Amino acid sequence: MSENRLTTATGSPVADNQNSQTAGYQGPILMQDVHLIEKLAAFNRERIPERVVHAKGAGAFGYFEVTHDVSEFTRAKFLSTVGKRTPVLIRFSTVAGEKGSADTERDPRGFAIKFYTEEGNYDLVGNNTPVFFIRDPLKFPDFIHSQKRHPVTNCKNPDAIWDFWSLSPESIHQVTILFSNRGTPRTYRHMHGYGSHTFQWVNEAGQGVWVKYHIRTEQGIENWRRHEAVQLAGEDPDYSTRDLFESIQRKEYPEWSVWVQIIPFDEARNYRFDVFDVTQTISQKDYPLIPVGRIVLNRNPDNYFAQIEQAAFSPANVVPGITFSPDKMLQGRLFAYADAHRYRLGINHTQLPVNRPLSPVTNYQRDGAMRVDGNGGDSVYYEPNSFHGPKQDPAASEPGLSLQGLSGSYAYPQNQFYTQAGDLYRLLPESEKTDLIDNIAASLGQAQKNIQLRQIGHFYKADQEYGQRIAEALHLAEAAPTDLQD
């Protein structure tokens, strides 16, 4: 067997390392995709004890308050009544850096919200960007590897970073956002948050709609320019962490408004972009934002390790009235996040005070490392049983999705990589276009020339001027666009 053949850990050849197996083109991911499961499970176990991603973070407690009636769309009780308040914890973070990295590095920012509802914990685990670099979880370990340190030099590796992006053209939308000034937000208080994925809301009648979350800062958007962010990384690498803590100490409580886009099932089928593709956005002109509520952070943690470092978020944590979509990245995260916590914090991590739900927990899970409650006492420990133990509740089920197609690995269409990236570039004011070009050139210029040429070809495809200006900034303007698009 060729040494260049990709295999599983047990030596079996891998047929497709770019596309997860799904039930039809838009169907959910199949558990039989053992390569995906093995790849994600191995990735989650690469670091101890800090998080593999989102290692550097800050957080605070507060509340979510319903300001508008959305009961026609969802039966989630915490969204049922205008004026109703639910306790929340938000953890903000950088993504690629280690626990000691600088808060102002160019990086997406994690924006994870835990709602302590009467029906259990609901986690909305998003970022400060509405899209992501990739759209299939099979590529996630490779993507993060490309952002980490070189295994020989232990330094960041621009060749790896840009090589991966240039060979994954679906990343160009997020790359454009990242290298705009939005890639270096001034503070955690001065940025929006997004659920990024498409989720499903279900109402009392069992009717579902697709939903996208937008959490908009009331402090206003503020960003650093590149030289400012670099300077501050040296002067005060904990700037955003300190700012969040001190603003709450001053009782200048940060606030966000919560909005959603609602997309009917039948309209989603024929929408001009795939609504389950996390590299794409859904136009607010087509589906305007609908107000839902507001979030206020008004309490700092009493102990960082106990309440922030040990906080565990997973998009698998939902409540009745909110469920999932066939978004491949979301489907992969449903496994990967909970699995990461089982490894990092242990099988009983949900018993830690910061992760413990306010609602009663009644199940048959017993034993395991670090069990901190009564371990069920002398209650019945199996099901079904004749001793009045907890029983399933059919009312909690959500309607299923209609699926069709053959199982297999399905690639996305190749013609939707560039449209939204180009649209975003053209929307930027001239000063921000200039900063974007400067930021990209400063980073891409450190990569090998063949990687630069490949990546510039993607920028040209998004927008002719976009590609041309980057080529000029890298002194590659003599190359024709057709030569750069191989």
UniProtKB/TrEMBL annotation:
The keyword Heme applies. Gene3D superfamilies: Catalase core domain (2.40.180.10). GO terms for biological process: hydrogen peroxide catabolic process; response to hydrogen peroxide. Heme binds at residue 337. InterPro entries: Catalase (IPR018028), Catalase_3 (IPR040333), Catalase_AS (IPR024708), Catalase_clade1/3 (IPR024711), Catalase_core (IPR011614), Catalase_haem_BS (IPR002226), Catalase_immune_responsive (IPR010582), Catalase_sf (IPR020835). Residues 1-23, 380-402 are annotated as: Disordered. SMART domains: Catalase (SM01060). Pfam families: Catalase, Catalase-rel. It is an enzyme of class 1 (oxidoreductase). SUPFAM superfamilies: Heme-dependent catalase-like. Residues 7-391 form the Catalase core domain. One of its GO terms (cellular component) is cytoplasm. Keywords: Heme, Hydrogen peroxide, Iron, Metal-binding, Oxidoreductase, Peroxidase. The active site is at 54, 127. It comes from the Bacteria. Its EC number is 1.11.1.6. Its cofactor is heme. GO terms for molecular function: catalase activity; heme binding; metal ion binding. The keyword Protein biosynthesis does not apply. It catalyses: 2 H2O2 = O2 + 2 H2O. Belongs to the catalase family. This is Catalase. It comes from Alicyclobacillus tolerans.
